[in-house]
Amino acid sequence: MSGRACVIDDRVTFSEVCSRCVHFSPIVGLEWHCDAFDRVPDAIWDGKNDHTAEYPGDHGIRFEPRVPVGEV
Question: Any idea where the domains of the chain sit in the sequence?
Answer without folding.
Answer: 1-63
